[in-house]
């Protein structure tokens, strides 16, 4: 991709950017270019940052929630329980070792808490409001990256919409 800009002195500068893998056409880069334009306009004060006013739980969070729930099941199941409901947990504990599930749960907890800090930063930047922001931050703790990934997609869509309204 070749970009040309006109400097204040009136001279033109060309910059060639190599994109790997090559894109098929403008439609492949249009959303990102519009978002970049919106970010630049936000920084210059030409438009306001998009405001997210509602919470949406993405469908991808279901899979993440099931995995987190399974990890909690393995962690909380007693190893000496007589119920057949605890048999999968005993099998996993024997196969993985006594501390593997504990380390995995603690690691997942640390990662999800760090992700919730990132989600908090996104919510603050885009003025979600107290309840919507709390819903996003608190849902990031059990569900992880699907929450903030969906929030970023919504922000990108809102930015593109705001640029399209300006033009």
UniProtKB/TrEMBL annotation:
Ranges that cross the membrane: 57-76, 96-118, 130-148
The protein, known as: DUF2470 domain-containing protein
Pfam family, one: TMEM254
Organism, as annotated: Asterophora parasitica
InterPro entries: TMEM254 (IPR028110)
Entry annotated with the keyword Transmembrane: yes
Keywords, in A-Z order: Membrane, Transmembrane, Transmembrane helix
